[in-house]
Every structure is written in C-alpha cells, then in structure tokens.
Amino acid sequence: MPEVNVEINGRKYRMACEEGQQEHLLGLAQRFDVQVEGLKEAIGEIGDNRLTVMAGIAVLDELVEAEHQISALKAQVSELGRDGQKMRDKTTALEQKLANKLGDAAQKLEAVANAIDASAPATQN
C-alpha cells in the first residue's frame, strides 16, 4: 500500500492510501491545512489539538451544508422530471388531438372531392 507524507499545521504525517490515490490524499491534506491555517490566523495559537478539532468541525460543517444543497438539488431535479413528464403527456395528447382533427379534415376533403366528381358532367373523349 503506497504511503505519502502530508503536512498539517507545520507537522508532517506519513499516511497510507490505496494505489492511485496519492495525489488525491495530498490534495485533501493541503485543503485541510489551509483550513487549519485560516483558523490559526483568525483565532491565534490555541493548541494543536484544539485547533485540529476546530478545523475538523469547520470542514464537517461545510460538508453538511454541501449535503443540504445536494438534497435540495435532487428535489429540484425530481420536480423537473415530473414537470417534464407532464409536458410530454400533454404534448402526446395534443399530437393525438391534432392527428384526429387532420384525419377528420382529410375525410371531409375526400367527401367534397367525391361530391365534386359525382356532380361534374361526364366528359366524352
């Protein structure tokens, strides 16, 4: 199993990860370090453990907010899907109605054409 060295709050940690996940783990560690450094700048030195816990909670807060946004987006997608199905159903009904009207019009035109043919004097050659 591959190992990578990450740095959080100025301290290096060796971590194992799955093959091919090294860059991903390094990126996550870098993002977490940015969170820790941001808290350190905002609050000051409050001890490594407390700072790390606060950064972890802040990251989880962002995660929970993202989960709420994802849930809201899923609900919107579901609603749009239902609306789309309603529109398809209406379109299908309108297409069927139009087809029926066109069929009726074609029958009437054919009846008119037959009546004209029947009433026209026969021509001799």
From TrEMBL:
Keyword vocabulary terms for this entry: Cell cycle, Cell division, Cytoplasm, Septation
Subunit structure: Homodimer. Interacts with FtsZ.
Stated role: Activator of cell division through the inhibition of FtsZ GTPase activity, therefore promoting FtsZ assembly into bundles of protofilaments necessary for the formation of the division Z ring. It is recruited early at mid-cell but it is not essential for cell division.
PANTHER family attached to this UniProt entry: CELL DIVISION PROTEIN ZAPA
UniProt cross-references to Pfam families, sorted A to Z: ZapA
Protein name as it appears in the record: Cell division protein ZapA
Family matches, as SUPFAM superfamilies: Cell division protein ZapA-like
Cellular localization per UniProt: Cytoplasm
Highest rank taxon of the organism: Bacteria
One BP term from GO: cell division
Species in which this protein is naturally found: Devosia rhodophyticola
UniProt-listed Gene3D superfamilies: Cell division protein ZapA protomer, N-terminal domain
